[in-house]
Design brief:
Chain A: It is a multi-pass membrane protein. The structure holds two protein chains of two kinds. Chain A folds into two domains: 3-64, no CATH class; 85-291, Orthogonal Bundle (MetI-like fold). Helix content of chain A is 77%, strand content 0%. Chain A has helices spanning 3-44, 48-53, 66-73, 85-115, 121-132, 136-150, 156-180, 184-192, 197-205, 210-226, 229-234, 242-252, 259-294. The radius of gyration of chain A is 25 Å and the shape is globular. In chain A, 34% of the residues are buried. Chain B folds into two domains: 4-228, Rossmann fold, CATH 3.40.50; 234-366, Nucleic acid-binding proteins (OB fold (Dihydrolipoamide Acetyltransferase, E2P)). Chain B has nine helices and 20 strands. Chain B has helices at residues 42-50, 92-102, 107-120, 136-148, 166-183, 194-200, 218-223, 228-233, 362-366, and strands at 4-13, 16-26, 31-35, 57-62, 65-66, 77-80, 154-158, 187-191, 203-208, 211-216, 240-246, 252-255, 261-263, 273-278, 283-284, 291-303, 307-314, 317-324, 334-340, 345-348. In chain B, helix 5 (166-183) links the parallel strand 7 (154-158) and strand 8 (187-191). In chain B, helix 2 runs parallel beside helix 4 (136-148). The longest helix of chain B is centred in the middle third of the chain and has 18 residues, at 166-183. The two termini of chain B are 35 Å apart. The chains are: A mainly alpha, B alpha+beta. The structure holds adenosine-5'-diphosphate and magnesium ion. The site of magnesium ion has 3 residues of chain B, from helix 1. Magnesium ion is lined by residues 42-43, 159 of chain B.
Chain lengths: 295, 367
């Protein structure tokens, strides 16, 4: 073997080993993170007897979807026994308008803060950023008071409003940073061509905003769907969102603990965010990257 | 009353005066080139004319009426941006049609007019493409088409060729010139490239630090620069600048560069510090009119194909001289040259301004 070949093989050796180590570690961590999901899924397909007698990591011997049906349609939450389906729709009715409104408003804010600057725009943006760092707990009581005054206590509309207000800081931040790098000359050119404020927004800016819209929608959807504190504070009983119902289901079921039903309900609760990530995840990464490089 | 009148225009950004009282007049159908080094305020001035930035003082009148309070879209001005500013999500055809669409032109008319403009600029085959799929030169054409389709009363160009490579720049430059000749459009064109200014303009305005240094025809700017900045900035190679002192009899300049005294066509105050400006083409092989012959050592030989530039040692100074390409020369040799002092421009070294009366037009100098 010539000296040159030696050099190559010794160079290739460590490279191959580091690859093995990297993949090994990645697999270990992936398993670590996937184990709870696996346990949840397999438990939800087991019968109560099997859960009591068997191994937590074992696959179901006789898979059955009974627990899923019960969780969806007939499990008892509080005094009613109609499953979580009503609450699931509550969450949908809350999350869809809240995400749409906060995203649209954030985009408009970002547009104004970058392309229609007014005296004091920095201060306004600074205050919106500050809003991102206010802890949830500290706004609970003032928010409850405001909702009371507006007559929106214990309604889905009230929850939508809370989430829009709270999310606005983040959505504005996302869009402002994205639009900051959008060439101002395009806006000026459109202005000279005779386009107005909303026409420029709709025809020039929005069509180029897909990556940041995806990022914002995922971020807002996940946060609002998973929110528990606002849900438990500002909605009660029949208007509760999914997360609150799930908590009630798990904590209030009398008699035997139906782990399979709990697990099925939990998976149902997590499903929408999972779907959003799978559908839009590709764009999410791309959008984050674009933001990272540009902003 | 001129078609475009700009009247003591000022703009201050955050305490900095960017434009310090700009006065410009331009006739209808004129091609005005604003030239000056980067950062001198050319884009700021253009944006003020377009209405994208408000001036802090002064007035802009088009066809006799002030436009400073009009929205950009109401001024009937089209602009070609340095970055071209093509709308990335629209096709070329949609880009060109956009101003018509905003003006409410019916669809069939739009298609017709876009087709006509695209034909003029030879971009018909590109109408369905997106801007990202175009080369730099093609994007430039699309940007021009979008401006042309509106048939505005004034065109603004902000360094439209600076993103193109050298060969394409020359091509598009010729095309812009042809467009101007065919359409008789009124154009204000910004560049930092003095060759572009010389080749395109019917009128040149040279700017520096937000102040106009000189306005005039290309030949006025080239032959009788108002001050040493203009003399140095315009023309390639730059004008030879020879500082010196007027001799005791007032009829010559003793050069600081060494033991040479050059005669003056017009007598000046003895002892005055002056700078004698001489273009490369005023130093050469000829021997007529008013001047001197010197034997100077050659330091650098620069053939350009069409001409031969010799860099000659004149005491401590190095001067460029233009010869026909047929002349053969090598570094180290002695070259006899004729300095045509009728074409010399005399500046006051202190104020850097041209001494009025000392310099003459070449046409006059010949008599
Ligand atoms: N928004 C701004 N804020 C502060 N200074 C600016 C701004 N825009 C331009 N300037 C300054 O104004 C001067 C002229 O700029 P510009 O008109 O773009 O120059 P040019 O187009 O001649 O290169 C520059 O010195 C630049 O730094
Ligand atoms: Mg500029």
């Amino acid at each position: 073997m010539s000296a040159r070949e030696m050099a190559i093989s010794t160079a290739a050796g460590p490279a191959r080993w580091s690859r093995v180590v990297i993949y090994g570690l990645l697999i270990v961590f992936a398993l670590f993170y996937l184990t709870p999901l696996f346990v949840m899924l397999s438990t939800s397909f087991k019968t109560l007897d099997e859960i009591r007698s068997g191994n937590i990591l074992a696959l179901p011997a006789h898979p059955t979807a009974d627990a899923w049906g019960k969780a969806w349609g007939s499990a008892c939450i509080g005094v009613t026994c109609e499953g979580i389906k009503g609450y699931f729709w509550n969450s949908i009715k809350m999350v869809v308008p809240a995400v749409l409104i906060s995203t649209v408003l954030g985009a408009l804010n970002g547009y104004v803060l970058t392309k229609w600057r007014f005296p004091g725009h920095r201060i306004v943006f600074g205050m919106m950023l500050f809003a991102c760092f206010i802890p949830f707990q500290s706004v609970l009581i003032p928010m409850a008071r405001v909702l009371g005054i507006l007559g929106l206590s214990n309604t889905t509309a009230g929850l939508v409003m809370v989430h829009v207000v709270y999310g606005l800081g983040f959505t504005t931040l996302f869009f402002r940073n994205y639009y900051d790098t959008f060439p101002t000359e395009l806006i000026q050119s459109a202005q000279m061509d005779g386009a107005g404020f909303f026409t420029i927004f709709r025809r020039i800016l929005l069509p180029s905003s897909a990556p940041i819209i995806v990022v914002t929608v995922i971020y807002q959807f996940t946060n609002i769907w998973n929110d528990f504190l606002f849900g438990v504070s500002f909605a009660s009983g029949g208007s509760s969102p999914m997360t609150v119902a799930l908590n009630n289901l798990v904590s209030s079921s009398t008699g035997v603990k139906e782990y399979n039903v709990d697990m099925a309900a939990a998976v149902i609760a997590a499903l929408p965010t999972l779907i959003v990530y799978i559908v839009a995840g590709r764009y999410f990464m791309r959008g984050l990257m674009a933001g990272a490089i540009k902003g | 009353m001129a078609f475009i009148e700009i009247d003591s225009l000022e703009r201050t950004i955050g305490g900095n005066k960017i434009l310090k009282g700009i006065d410009i007049e331009l006739e209808k159908g004129g091609f005005l080139v604003l030239v000056g080094p980067s950062g001198c305020g050319k884009s700021t001035l253009l944006n003020a004319i377009a209405g994208l930035q408000q001036p802090t003082a002064g007035d802009i009148r088009i066809d006799g009426t002030s436009v400073v309070n009009l929205h950009p879209s109401k001024r009937d001005i089209a602009m070609v941006f340095q970055s071209y500013a093509l709308y990335p999500n629209m096709t070329v055809g949609e880009n060109i049609a956009f101003p018509l669409e905003m003006a409410g032109t019916p669809k069939e008319n739009r298609t017709k007019e876009v087709g006509a403009v695209a034909k003029t600029l030879q971009i018909e085959h590109l109408l369905d493409r997106k801007p990202a799929q175009l080369s730099g030169g093609q994007r430039q054409r699309v940007a021009m088409a979008r401006a042309l389709v509106r048939k505005p009363r004034l065109f603004l160009f902000d360094e439209p060729l600076s993103n193109l490579d050298a060969k394409l720049r020359v091509e598009v430059r010729a095309e812009i010139k042809r467009l101007h000749q065919n359409t008789h459009a009124t154009i204000i064109y910004v560049t930092h490239d003095q060759i572009e200014a010389m080749t395109l303009a019917t009128k040149i305005v040279v700017m520096k630090d937000g102040i106009i240094q000189q306005a005039g025809t290309p030949s006025e700017i080239y032959n009788t620069p108002a001050n040493m900045f203009v003399a140095d900035f315009m023309g390639s190679p730059a004008m030879n600048m020879l500082p010196g002192t007027v001799t005791a009899d007032g009829r010559g300049v003793a050069l600081d560069a060494g033991a040479f005294t050059l005669p003056l066509a017009t007598p000046l105050t003895p002892g005055r510090k002056v700078t004698l400006g001489l273009r490369a083409e005023a130093i050469g092989a000829g021997q007529s009119g008013f001047g001197v012959t010197l034997d100077l050592p050659v330091e650098i030989v620069e053939p350009t194909g069409s001409d031969l530039y010799l860099w000659l040692r004149l005491g401590k100074a190095l001067v460029s001289a233009r010869f026909p390409a047929t002349v053969e020369q090598r570094p180290g040799a002695i070259q006899p040259v004729w300095l045509d002092l009728n074409r010399a421009v005399i500046f006051d070294t202190e104020s850097r301004e041209r001494i009025v009366g000392a310099a003459q037009e070449p046409a006059l100098a010949a008599t």
